[in-house]
Amino acid sequence: MRYNIILFVILFHCGYKATASKPVVNEMKVLESGTLFMEGSCDTSKGSSCITIPNVFSPNNDGKNDVFRIASSGLKTMTCGIFNRWGVKLWDLKGPEESWDGRDQTGIACSTGTYFYILDAVGVDGKTYHQSGFIELIR
Q: What tens digit of pLDDT does each residue of 68-110 get?
């Protein structure tokens, strides 16, 4: 099962937790290599919102996890700043459909390492999100 490593590096902000003592295999299914889908994470038919933020990606042009993309449902607005360890803003996501390819604003590829994000969003249900955390970029 080569997906176990991927499953344990995803952060779930919709109520699910991935831990070594409680595998999440039954709560997810793999649609294709590098794409994960959480079943039952949000019920958007009732006008709810949800955000799922991965904490690792590998922009090495192999077609698997090449961009940092925040999975979401039912968002009215979303912004997400991505920073290096010195606090320099490298990228801005200005909506839930945008992604980061591991380059700074001048187009230079960022090196392998830990980066930080600050996310602000508002859902169609009025729920506000203010989250921050780490992103591991692996080349």
A: 999 999 999 999 999 999 999 999 999 999 999 999 999 999 9
Q: 30 CB contacts (<8 Å, ≥6 apart)? A: 3, 36, 37
Q: For the purposes of burial, counting CB atoms within 10 Å of the CB of 24, is it exposed (0-12), middle (13-18) or buried (19 or more)?
A: middle
- Residue 69, beta-bridge partner list: 99
Determine the Cα–Cα distance for residues 62 and 25; give it in Å rounded to an integer: 24
Range with the poorest average pLDDT among 14-23, 66-75, 106-115: 14-23
Q: Which amino acid is at 125?
A: D
Q: Is 123 exposed, middle or buried (0-12, 13-18, 19+ CB in 10 A)?
A: buried
Q: What is the CATH number of domain 4-137?
A: 2.60.40
- Backbone φ/ψ region at 68: left (φ over 0), alpha (ψ -120 to 50), beta: beta
**Token representation of residue 41:** 């994470």
